[in-house]
Amino acid sequence: MNNEITNKYKTAPEHSELGKQSSYEDAYNPNRLYPIPRAGKRLEIGINPERIPFYGFDIWNHYEVSWLNEKGKPIVAIAEIIYDCSSEFIIESKSMKLYFNSLNNTKFKSLMEVQALVKKDLEACLQTEVLVKIVPVGEESAIDLQQSFAGVNIDNLDIECKDYMINPETLKTSTQLVEETLYSDLLKSNCLVTGQPDWGSVQIQYKGRKIDHGGLLKYLVSFRNHNEFHEQCIERIFVDIMNYCKPEELTVYGRYTRRGGLDINPYRSSKKVSLQNLNMRLVRQ
What we know:
By secondary structure, this protein is of the alpha+beta class. The protein has helices spanning 3-8, 39-45, 93-101, 111-126, 213-221, 230-245; strands at 35-37, 55-68, 74-84, 89-91, 130-136, 144-146, 152-153, 173-190, 197-211, 249-256, 262-269, 280-282.
């Protein structure tokens, strides 16, 4: 790509409120939302932003949603937010929290009014369709609690780890053809801006030449001191496995622990996928 196109996709997370002291709003303020273009990091990872090699979604769960009813009584709820990974932007996570905090002392007539407003504001920020479901605490939630991902846990492998900055060279395959689901709870990276640790679990479903489990675990551990947002880490894992292992099919699903009441869960797949039963809550979440 030429420099003009490359410059178009540069990100500016350092201009957000991440890592800075922030004021909290007394009233609703949609301007707290801060979009960051996806494309800058995708270029770095080796993805053409105009022809991304996967389908998928970013799934957010926010456990600290609140507002006032018409009589001033607080309502507390959980929000599920989902938008497609083909969107041009992501929302910087602290700005999402600050936006929801601006609802805390604002009166609304109904839950549906809040849900419609959040949907409108997020779609204006992201410039794409956003699915929003807000459920008051005490009512049945669509988020199912699961102890762990389905599949084979590779964390008990007796391996020696030396790399704590990304090393995809450990990704190896055999000639055996398989279709399997693997997962690890050892994923850790750091926030791109603040350097604070991000803890997560990752599930890898694939079809093709058998991936060496020990080499895969070493690769996942090598993210330990890497600085990148959740969405970018999962996309990097997808691209590296595709490049080094060349599976016929691949799905990478990351579920991260909460920060500020929010968890972010990127899902990337070589196949189109339905959202049905996709959201869950692992034990650490």
